[in-house]
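FIELD: query
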Amino acid sequence: MKQCLRCFRFLSSRTRRCIYCGHDRTEKLEFEFASHNPNYKIYTHEIIIDDQAYTIVKSIGRGGFGRVIKVFNSAEKTFYALKVPLIFDEIFSNQKGKTAREMKISRQYLENEIDMLVNIADEAFIHRYKRGMVSAQTKDRSERFPVLMMELAECTLQEIIKHASSGEGNPFPYDEKIKIIKESVNAISHLHSLGVLHRDLSPDNLFAVDREGKITYVLGDFGASKSLFKEEAGNQSSEVVGHNAYLDPCRFTKKYNRDFRLDIYSLGIIITEIFMGRFWTDVMGKENIHDFLAVDFEREFLLQEGAANVPANIIDVIRKAVKRDSEDRYDTIDDFRRVLFAVLQTRPEEEKTELIAPGTITFPFYFSLTLPFEPDDKTFSQEIIKYIEGERMELSDYRGAKIVFNNFLPKKVSINNTSLYSAVVSGNAILLNFITGKYVELEKLSEEIDEEVEGELHFKGIIEIEWVT
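FIELD: result
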């Protein structure tokens, strides 16, 4: 895959000049799949699938239910992506220790994906070439397991966003973001029209493929998918799957765990990340997210950090897709698609926005640490403190607190006077978190005073908040 050095659109490796602006200077892009593990080793050179040998090139992906490896067919002179269940690792790699139950579930998910793809083969989805069987001999038994041979993608959307946010490469432009969003939404719309719920949407399952001399974005990884029109009572899996950061909280509710709106919620988060060019978990700070299901994505992220990076009219559309209560969302993917595609026609430079003048507030907080200092590894139930102007704010647990504001919404927060804490905006509150790694600095400080000193160190930090009414 290439990138134009004038308009920065993504191009097929086979093109000599940009198909969008005609520029002849391009840069070749090499993506490392996000789930790549440099310590992972495969101890076999080739794999035999239905009496045909394929050379193993490398592992290019790892999920909760299997692995994807790049293979080469010397007769066809073609590379493929080969999805294998976890039993492959047990036999052919240094990744051991899977339980019998894990390997059984892994095989079930692969077989489900194979069966699902028979019915939904389409240009909007990753191409499936064939189902195969592998026979292998271990020291104490013979094994046979299914594999799925697929089209080899250039990369996933996960790698594109990661590349854009790293600062090492060129960003991807607005027009490319619109292309990714439209092709992704169209793929989900088509999937739902077939009566299939994906259930595991994430940037890891949207792929950039090189077809007909251009880059196209398609949907893949159907191991968790369910056909809702053909689902039989008594045949419902209780297994919960999905990438946690995109997992709909309603999924755990029996009434909604097979609702098409589960995919709409995940898609809303993905679209937010495409516009931002960054992962929402990185922006919010993974150390500040103690439980994904406890986060109200709309209130605590989309209306805070999201609103600062995504056009306002698009924020309004996404809000309804990620409502915490699924009854408040779009009824169907096509309802979402219709409204979203309409606002995508308005480019950012054409928007008229009304600016809100923010205010700022600064106040101190106090905390104490016992010497000799030892990090507390007990379960932490974050203290909730209501902000009252002029009232002394002292943490009862040095590890942090949730500070709630009733009269305004915090928009941006910074910590001064101490490097021991980080803070992030969360709805009408801020989350104040102790940076555990900083205890090393405290240990050095206590050693300078006296190695055996006992007592308390008292600190004062300053919180500065930019807010809107």
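FIELD: remark
Residues 156-229+242-350 form a domain with the Transferase(Phosphotransferase); domain 1 fold (CATH 1.10.510.10).
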